[in-house]
Amino acid sequence: ALALGGGRGAGLCGRLRPHRAGCPGLRRETGGGGGRNLSSSPRSGCAGAKMLPPGGGLLWLGLVLGSVCASVGSAAPGNSATDALNVLLIIVDDLRPSLGCYGDKLIRSPNMDQLASHSLLFQNAFAQQAVCAPSRVSLLTGRRPDTTRLYDFNSYWRAHSGNFSTIPQYFKENGYVTMSVGKVFHPGVSSNHSDDSPYSWSVPPYHPSSEKYENTKMAAALPRAVWTGQTCERVLLGEMGQQLPLPLAVCEVEVMVKTEIGLVADVATSGNEATCRGPDGELHANLLCPVDVAHVPEGTLPDKQSTEQAIRLLGKMKTSASPFFLAVGYHKPHIPFRYPKEFQKLYPLENITLAPDPQVPAGLPPVAYNPWMDIRRREDVQALNLSVPYGPIPADFQRKIRQSYFACVSYLDTQVGHLLSALDDLQLASSTIVALTSDHGWALGEHGEWAKYSNFDVTTRVPLVFYVPGRTAPLPAAGDKLFPYLDPFDSISESVEPGRQAGDLVELLSLFPTLAGLAGLRVPPRCPIPSFHVELCREGRNLLKHFQVRDSEEDLYIHGNPRELVAYSQYPRPADSPQWNSDKPSLKDIKVMGYSIRTVDYRYTVWVGFNPREFLANFSDVHAGELYFVASDPWQDHNMYNDSQGGALPRSLTP
Questions:
Q1: What does the pLDDT read at residue 563?
Q2: Which of 327, 366, 431, 547 is the most buried (most CB within 10 A)?
Q3: One GO MF term, please (predicted)?
């Protein structure tokens, strides 16, 4: 049941919230932490009923925003200058700062560059863990992975760690209509199979119907032995990197496909759903998958559907008396690289270079290396018959991977462009904050690695851009457009003027307090230590100091005190050497945790023993270390840890 709620800014179509007498409950997850039933929490509602389905469908959303909000037609035809600012949060999957606005001369990203030209761009923003679910829970709660206790995909923080508030939940409790489109939270256990509904969202989150044609690829690409009951060759790696048979019990775990893309229920038939047509005319579960959109199932792709749905929601909220918080999660450039094939033309292979450091560094500790198992499982990569764990991938195929990643970025850019253009067309650009970021970066051959799953800059550094009407750019005049759609086939980044930039090191944890402050809400207080019992607090810095109105003589580059700043990241490993689950170990298998700090001068990482039952790191049990100096070694290839007397540096590894 739904009821209209009050709160700041609530009007005829006020805050939508679950009615206490009939609100859905919370599934209590077990495994690894001090889980608790949240029914006793005064803010968690009631428990015991089944959670609403996470998709909800267009019909449900139409009923909620059509019928319930039909009366807003008599309200003001838009948010006035005195109203609360709306928020559009765009979260991209696996996007490193390979964008024109970040200085990449090859990438065509005119729409994101145009957004940056009206925004404040943070040059040095870092994720707290380079994998989807832990990073998203961290940035959306404003807590570090050691606080959420989520290092894998297999627990829900409210039951496993603490009943922590999220960014959309905080806005919802302050009178906002909160809506989710696409991949915002990671689907599955880590968001209670509901994208944290109803706590975070006023209406059920939307997921595109064509998403299912991407989520079955990895299962189809697993070795056939996985589901025939035979031993699984080419999966488990020994201490020396040799291939070992995988026990049947572990095979059965693999059949359930505990991957970032969720749980595949029927892998025995999933091979029939592969949608990448190869040169042989057959369907395959490939890494590289440019498609003719007219001939794919449903004739569309997930990110296209997400853009269309987000635009529909903006249209519904245009006349609302309540402010809105709309989060839009885009899948690309996450693998598989399934995108409209015409975007390949933007990146001819002869223009694609290899990574500047495509070899595994000689001084890299084995524990630090990610063997990119999710890439290896793809059929086109399996056909290369690569050695395990270090590869390497042949140079020509490396160029094809990089080509497809860049093509996905340009395809993503068109979707962001259509969304922002609609914001203009609906006259919402003058009343809506826009924030764009990613859950983490992605290695494109640097250090001989692919994908994420490490502490290097290429996997932890992310784009972070804030557009704030009247602060980062003047309010548009009547009839003017801030965000006209730019076609990447016609536009180049050099044609877009740069905006303001900040060079400070910042963390994705700062998203929560910064968005709250920019919207005029009370900034949550800093968290005590420990903070498991505190529902609303923040572990990230407030970045509001950067958003002061610019003086006409002010330099475009904002200087702080960079040597006082630090960004923390971490990554778990199951062993000291690469093995089949090194990239995504389950909590129970974590034996080592790599804690990393990034300053303006260096990146310093120590790999220490970790007790997954107690969630405790033993800093006296050092397994390996890394030290890279930014000025002399920007690509982090020359490990100086053993030349620094044990890596002794003045900074603590724990925040």
A1: 58
A2: 327
A3: iduronate-2-sulfatase activity
Residues pairing with 15 in the sheet? 5
Judge contact between 444 and 458, C-beta under 8 A. Answer: yes
pLDDT of residue 228 exceeding 60, the answer is no
More confident residue, 251 or 165: 165
Residue 558 clears pLDDT 60, i.e. is over it: no
- How far does the chain reach from its first CA to its final CA, in angstroms? 43
Is residue 124 within a helix (H) or strand (E), and if so which, with residue range?
strand 120-126
DSSP-derived secondary structure letter, 273: G
Amino acid at 305: Q
- Active-site residue among 23, 101, 132, 537? 132
State how far the Cα of 73 lies from the Cα of 66, in Å rounded to an integer: 11
Instruction: Please give the helix or strand (H or E) that residue 403 lies within, else none.
Output: helix 395-425
Q: For position 60, what pLDDT does the model report?
A: 35
Confidence tier at 278 by pLDDT (50, 70, 90):
confident
**297 residue type, one letter:** P
The pLDDT of residue 283 = 86
Q: What is the pLDDT of residue 478?
A: 82
Each residue's pLDDT tens digit, 136-147: 999 999 999 999
Q: What pLDDT score does 634 carry? A: 95
Q: At what angle do helices 132-141 and 511-518 cross, to 10 degrees?
A: 40
Active-site residue among 160, 186, 440, 623? 186
Beta bridge partners of 301: none
Nearest to 212 by CA among 347, 338, 311: 338
Q: Say how far apart CA 225 and CA 172 lie, in whole Å.
A: 48
Nearest to 496 by CA among 198, 186, 101: 101
Count Cβ atoms within 10 A of the Cβ of residue 214 and give its class: 0-12 exposed, 13-18 middle, 19 or more buried.
Answer: buried
Is residue 295 among the annotated active site residues?
Answer: no
Domain ranges of the chain: 2-75+91-213+299-340+361-471+480-551+558-643
Average pLDDT over residues 216-224: 37
* Residue 376 three-state SS: helix
Query: What pTM does this model have?
Result: 0.81
What is the third-level CATH fold of 2-75+91-213+299-340+361-471+480-551+558-643?
Alkaline Phosphatase, subunit A (3.40.720)
Tell me the residue type at 7: G
To the query of whether residue 101 is one of the catalytic residues in this protein, the response is: no
Give the model's pLDDT for residue 557: 53
